[in-house]
Specification:
The chain has about 50 residues and is an all-beta fold. Helix content is about 0%, strand content about 15%.
Length: about 50
């Protein structure tokens, strides 16, 4: 699979800045939206 860059996140890496609009909850900004401690980001594309 082609990648946009060679950078791959690993355990302990800082999540890159990312912002997007949701269907029902307005704008989400990551990693700020994770808060303190652990966070999980799950992306479901539904169809390629």
């Amino acid at each position: 699979m082609a990648r946009a860059s060679a950078f791959i996140l690993d355990s302990g890496d800082t999540f890159p800045a990312l912002g997007f609009e949701t269907v029902a909850h307005g704008r989400v900004a990551l990693p700020d939206g994770f808060g303190d401690g652990w966070g999980v980001f799950l992306a479901y594309r539904a169809h390629w």
